[in-house]
């Protein structure tokens, strides 16, 4: 376990520390929930320093409650997420990885060791990065991933050489020797083997373990057996003893002593099995008791329910596909309706634009016709003015003026082009009155239509009598008769016609 400098704590955590040291053995179950409750308070009290990892380690890990320690570490992790402290996160993940490693959960241990190394890389903590790399390699070795473990130990060796750290380099070299021993496919380079042999301290337990691997790599089984005896006399750790029995099995197998090799491998299996049971007891005691009873029924259970689950999965897939198809279909339908609505609006806008265009063209034609009518009326005035000017103060003036006026009246009464122009002027100025008159009264005589055109134009009965070559009284009578006929007809445009009678 790596040493970590203690940080100042707020008063609540100091109180918890004092309580724990007095009542650790009698009130452990009570204190752990109190610590878990106070940790969030510490994190939100004016950004006070986080609780020290050393205190959580000494209060819980040393007391033997690994699960309680893990809860404390996870709460600290929650508070560290809001802080830019990669070094602190690296230390935290190292501690969590250690707990999982001791529980033989090497997959989770590797995950946290990797996170620790990444945070140490961000904080430029080279030594801690090297230690995390060594831990990752150890977890990979326990997962039987020798290739990855060899790469990680080689990377840790490079980092140790960069720091000139003999202790870290010795650890990496010793583990590389063990990996080359267990890997039958790779041949260790001679320069690396010589360096491993030089780094091993002959008078230490760690050195004896290294020398065993070195002698095995050199195929010197007698020397390996010698160092094995030295290591066995010094080692009291159960896991190390199991590894020594496995190494002894390899030595005896290489020497041809298969009976002794069998004894050692049986002892190795017994120790590893006992170690696994003791580690898993605190978290899976009840499950272990029921495991063997359920194992015999598991195959039958699996066969019975396999078809059910397959059908359930297939039905679920079809259901999801159906829901997805329905949703997509509805969206396409809504999109189609939206597009149709937009197209309809576009058609309406285009129709309105065309109507406005036609209306503007009609107005333009109307203005053009009105200008032509005005110009023609000015031509009449121009002719009268010229006649008056040319014959001013002459005896023939009155006769000439009379003849000119007579010619104009004759044009209005006999010239069809002049009458059509007059009818067009009525249509232009009075909402197509003549056109509607012909539609509402198709049987009306042409002479009556001409009379109504003169009336709608606004000529007086006296002028109309000149145009029609009838008496004024007759014009009045015909006008009254036509007015009564239109009024009683009940046509759609009766009000328009009546308004033009004046």
Description:
The protein has 21 helices and no strands. It is mainly alpha-helical and 502 residues long. Among the domains are: 11-222, Tetratricopeptide repeat domain (Serine Threonine Protein Phosphatase 5, Tetratricopeptide repeat, Alpha Horseshoe), CATH 1.25.40; 417-499, no CATH class. Helix 3 packs antiparallel against helix 4 (66-80) and helix 9 packs across helix 10 (190-199). Keywords: Membrane, Transmembrane, Transmembrane helix. InterPro entries: TPR-like_helical_dom_sf (IPR011990). The chain crosses the membrane at residues 307-328.
Could you name the key traits of this structure?
Serine Threonine Protein Phosphatase 5, Tetratricopeptide repeat; mainly alpha; disordered N terminus; 0% strand; single chain; 502 residues
What's a quick, concise take on this entry?
The chain has 21 helices and no strands. By secondary structure, the protein is an all-alpha fold. The protein starts with 10 loop residues before the first helix and ends with a helix.
